[in-house]
């Protein structure tokens, strides 16, 4: 058996192991697709949880800043003479 015959035999063996009779690549088995779908689902959940965690953190920070600003405004009104009773004077 010479080298050209050995090469064609190896090529034929490789083609029969990688391709079906029509020459098209074989369909991948369903097992890896199920694993891929499961991994993709888990990663999607992790991303969703991360986004919710960061969003909740930003919301809490914004609420804290709003409360701090309201406290500052309240304390500045109390410091001004007659500043807190401006609305009460309209009813009289």
From TrEMBL:
Segments of skewed composition (Polar residues): 1-22
Organism domain of life: Eukaryota
Positions of transmembrane segments: 37-60
Region (Disordered): 1-32, 73-92
Signal peptide: none
Compartment(s) where it occurs, according to its Swiss-Prot or TrEMBL record: Membrane
InterPro entries: Reprimo_fam
Bilayer topology term: Single-pass membrane protein
Keywords carried by this UniProt record: Membrane, Transmembrane, Transmembrane helix
Protein name, entry field: Small integral membrane protein 41
Provenance organism: Rangifer tarandus platyrhynchus (Svalbard reindeer)
Lineage: Eukaryota, Metazoa, Chordata, Craniata, Vertebrata
């Amino acid at each position: 058996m010479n080298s050209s015959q050995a090469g064609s035999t190896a090529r034929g063996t490789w083609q029969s192991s990688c391709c079906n009779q029509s020459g098209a690549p074989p369909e991948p088995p369903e097992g890896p697709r199920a694993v891929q779908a499961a991994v993709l689902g888990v990663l999607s959940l992790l991303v969703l949880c991360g986004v919710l965690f960061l969003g909740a953190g930003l919301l809490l920070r914004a609420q804290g800043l709003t409360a701090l600003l309201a406290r500052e405004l309240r304390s500045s009104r109390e410091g001004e003479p007659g500043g807190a009773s401006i609305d009460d004077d309209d009813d009289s």
